[in-house]
Write a structure and sequence with these properties.
Blueprint (H helix, E strand, L loop, with lengths): L13 H7 L25 H7 L35 E12 L2 E9 L9 E7 L6 E7 L7 E9 L18 E8 L4 E8 L6 E2 L12 E9 L4 E8 L4 E7 L6 E7 L8 E10 L9 E9 L9 E9 L4 E3 L5 E2 L7 E5 L8 E6 L14 E2 L6 E11 L2 E10 L6 E8 L8 E4 L5 E10 L10 E8 L5 E7 L5 E5 L5 H4 L8 E5 L2 E2 L16 E2 L13 E10 L2 E6 L4 E6 L8 E8 L5 E10 L9
Parallel strand pairs: 1-20
Antiparallel strand pairs: 1-2, 2-3, 3-4, 5-6, 6-7, 7-8, 9-10, 10-11, 11-12, 13-14, 14-15, 15-16, 15-17, 18-19, 19-21, 21-22, 21-30, 22-31, 23-36, 24-35, 25-32, 25-36, 26-27, 26-35, 27-28, 28-29, 32-33, 33-34
The structure holds 2-acetamido-2-deoxy-beta-D-glucopyranose (10 copies).
Protein name: Glycosyl hydrolase
InterPro entries: ConA-like_dom_sf, Glyco_hydro_32, Glyco_hydro_32_AS, Glyco_hydro_32_C, Glyco_hydro_32_N, Glyco_hydro_beta-prop_sf
GO molecular function, one term: sucrose alpha-glucosidase activity
Length: 603
């Protein structure tokens, strides 16, 4: 289906940004604030406010939650730490923008059915990227047959649009850009808000091309050329087209990024954003990444995201090389989008954790689909092979300490060399992290596997993840045993996925002959990695949340996201951590319960 889209908007005037927005070193150092946004009311009529209590517990369409039985957000398959709408169908994240302490998450939403269609922009806000508060629908279509498709949002600090007067603080001037979909066209439109809740549509299209496959604007203030830039997908021409504008209303085409990577059937959701380099002498330096979502046509079926690291000169994106890279090896990570205006030179992003191959059939009710964990992105230097250097997008969950609950098990320093089983008691969401050691010169077998098996309450159904050692080592997710009634029936619910684990790479010192830290491609023979006589350590983290598992290897060097559906309303109840042929050692294990982000909605 021609669905999704999204886009976001990056920075804004750098100077204004630095002076107006607080930029704490770590914006997640604080717990959930009682008030998300001082100028923001709940969007609920005064008289109704007492009925709904905490605004977090309002319906995604803005109505009161009272009367729902069972209470929403308590359903057995409902993830407890991932964002989902109260009822009905959600897809792409949209309008991701940070404004004065508040992270906005808009999303593609059908408020009337539990399948895609009738697209609106739903809305939620957070102060820590985990605890979300539902707000009323932000942007709705006006006519039967029209849809408000994906797009993104920027902060118009300097009022370039002319939409704001002096009563709206500079860092709260939110302008959304979205695609209006009709039977005969896809055109690009603006809507703006002074209170972060209510949006006013700017009349007429700001970009149109007599095109039915032209969508997902991602706008940002470009510091290099001092103007707005927007990336849009010419979906079925496999083109990303860039436009520039002084005011977001008058746009001029400036360049194209055409026919790169895996084409599939459609390009969607382009996102050009800046990411800090992590480690080495260029630590903290920002570089550009262009991400494109493809649907269908992923090599493992359906929807996936590919990206390029490259240079942006103010008009044109030039990738550093022609290789396709992906940031998630599994099947349920699509419509990736980054937050605009993130504080502290950091990059944060989220994706829709599902796949169009089955997203409208998955057995969840009364809602369908969740967003992934929020991810913190960096660019890190790795070796995909011992002889090759590469700069990859590292992708790990935003600091989970905001939702950490009880520690269910913890061991360190080799005290848990044997297999361990830990009961998972809590609300169905857990963070399981282990470090495994392969001693030097161990002779590995096919079964030199370290794994987590997460069981449902019946002790039979399970979802697994693990690492098989070798050259290279690979990580996998296996959801085949997680409930036959959906998995076995659906021809596209690919049950096993895997990805290659890269080798750690040391940064060369500036004085060495190979001073370019970010060399791409073959390394000189003197730099070949020799792992003989060295023990290898691998860290595996699984965040499991009732019906989704997200796996991270070596703190985000590799990530995989899979939804799964246990039969009979079961939730995760036990994890067994094991090593296949006892060549690997389990040196560290920590299992923590994660606290539901929706607990305030329970009576
Ligand atoms: C996460 O946040 C906690 C609490 O602020 C802090 O102690 C911890 O170091 C942070 N962890 C990471 C990996 O940043
Ligand atoms: C909001 O959604 C609920 C549940 O689908 C529905 O009963 C209610 O009528 C909707 N309210 C509005 C204002 O659309
Ligand atoms: C931004 O948020 C802070 C803390 O909530 C508040 O004190 C301040 O007034 C806000 N700034 C503006 C410009 O509204
Ligand atoms: C924003 O621009 C509009 C149109 O030019 C103008 O009327 C308004 O006063 C401006 N607002 C501010 C805060 O400068
Ligand atoms: C400024 O803008 C706000 C929000 O759009 C509006 O409520 C207010 O009336 C405007 N003030 C003036 C002086 O135009
Ligand atoms: C728009 O495209 C349609 C279909 O290709 C074509 O029939 C029509 O003439 C085009 N309109 C304009 C104004 O170019
Ligand atoms: C784990 O749970 C099972 C079943 O409820 C129970 O029999 C067992 O004693 C528990 N184990 C631990 C270590 O608490
Ligand atoms: C690995 O295999 C080699 C060749 O068979 C043998 O010499 C060596 O002792 C083995 N290493 C270990 C740790 O078992
Ligand atoms: C990286 O450097 C450290 C310290 O110099 C060394 O111990 C380690 O073996 C190196 N790792 C690799 C993969 O070269
Ligand atoms: C650990 O579990 C694996 C697989 O379940 C099994 O093959 C192995 O023998 C177990 N090791 C120990 C020490 O119990």
């Amino acid at each position: 289906m021609k669905s999704s889209l999204f886009a976001a908007a990056l920075g804004a005037l750098a100077a204004a940004c630095a002076s107006a927005a607080p930029s704490p070193a770590d914006p997640f150092d604080f717990r959930q604030a009682a008030l998300v946004y001082p100028r923001m009311n709940d969007g609920v009529a005064q008289g109704q406010a007492s009925l709904v209590g905490n605004g977090q517990c309002r319906n995604s369409n803005g109505s009161s939650l009272s009367g729902y039985q069972p209470a929403l957000y308590t359903e057995s398959v409902r993830p407890q730490i991932h964002f989902s709408p109260t009822v009905n169908f959600m897809n792409d994240p949209n309008g991701l923008v940070y404004s004065n302490g508040t992270w906005h998450l808009f999303y593609q939403y059908n408020p009337t059915q539990n399948v895609a269609g009738n697209q609106h922009w739903g809305h939620a806000v957070s102060t820590d990227l985990y605890h979300w508060k539902n707000l009323p629908i932000a942007i709705a279509p006006e006519k039967e047959g029209e849809g408000i498709f994906s797009g993104n949002a920027v902060i118009d600090f300097e009022n370039t649009t002319g939409f704001f007067n002096g009563s709206t603080p500079k860092d709260q001037r939110i302008v959304a850009m979205y695609t209006l979909n009709t039977d005969t066209s896809q055109t690009q439109h603006l809507a703006y808000s002074s209170d972060g809740i209510h949006f006013t549509k700017y009349p007429g299209a700001v970009i149109s091309r007599n095109q039915t496959q032209f969508r997902d604007p991602k706008a940002f203030w470009d510091e290099k050329s001092s103007r707005w830039i927007v990336a849009l997908a010419l979906s079925q021409e496999f083109g990303i087209v860039f436009y520039s504008s002084p005011n977001m209303k008058d746009w001029t085409e400036v360049s194209r990024f055409q026919s790169y990577g895996i084409l599939g059937y459609q390009y969607e959701c382009p996102d050009l954003f800046q990411v800090p380099v992590e480690g080495g002498p260029d630590d903290g330096k920002m570089m550009y990444v262009l991400a494109i979502s493809i649907n269908p046509g992923a090599l493992i079926g359906g929807s996936f995201v590919q990206y390029w690291v490259g240079d942006w000169d103010g008009s044109k994106f030039t990738p550093r090389d022609n290789a396709v890279r992906t940031m998630d090896f599994s099947k349920d990570f699509y419509a990736f989008s980054s937050w605009n205006n993130s504080p502290g030179k950091k990059a944060y992003a989220i994706a829709w954790a599902n796949n169009w191959q089955y997203s409208q059939q998955v057995p969840t009710s009364p809602f369908r689909s969740i967003q992934s964990l929020p991810r913190e992105l960096t660019l890190k230097y790795y070796r995909p092979t011992p002889q090759f250097g590469d700069l990859i997008l590292n992708n790990r969950p935003v600091n989970l300490s905001a939702i950490h609950g009880k520690t269910l098990y913890k061991s360190e320093n080799g005290n848990s060399a044997r297999n361990q089983t830990v009961n998972l008691s809590g609300q169905g969401a857990f963070d399981i992290t282990a470090t495994f050691k392969l001693p030097a010169n161990a002779n590995i077998t096919y079964n030199t596997i370290a794994s987590f098996e997460i069981f449902a309450g019946d002790g039979k159904q399970s979802v697994k993840t693990g690492i098989q050692m070798g050259e290279p080592a690979v990580a996998y997710i296996d959801r085949r045993g997680a409930g036959q009634s959906f998995a076995a029936q659906n021809p596209f619910f690919t049950d096993k996925t895997s990805g290659i684990i890269r080798y750690a790479a040391n940064y060369t010192t500036a004085s060495s002959e190979n001073a370019d830290q970010y060399v791409l491609g073959p390394l000189p023979p003197s730099a070949y990695l020799d792992s003989t006589d060295q023990a290898q350590y691998i860290k595996l983290q699984a965040v499991v949340d009732r019906s989704v598992i997200e796996v991270f290897v070596n703190d985000g060097e590799l990530a995989g996201t899979s939804v799964f559906y246990f039969d009979n309303d079961q939730i995760p109840s036990k994890v067994t951590v094991s090593v296949g042929d006892n060549k690997l050692q389990l040196v560290d294990l920590e299992v923590r319960a994660l606290n539901s982000i929706w607990s305030k909605c329970k009576e």
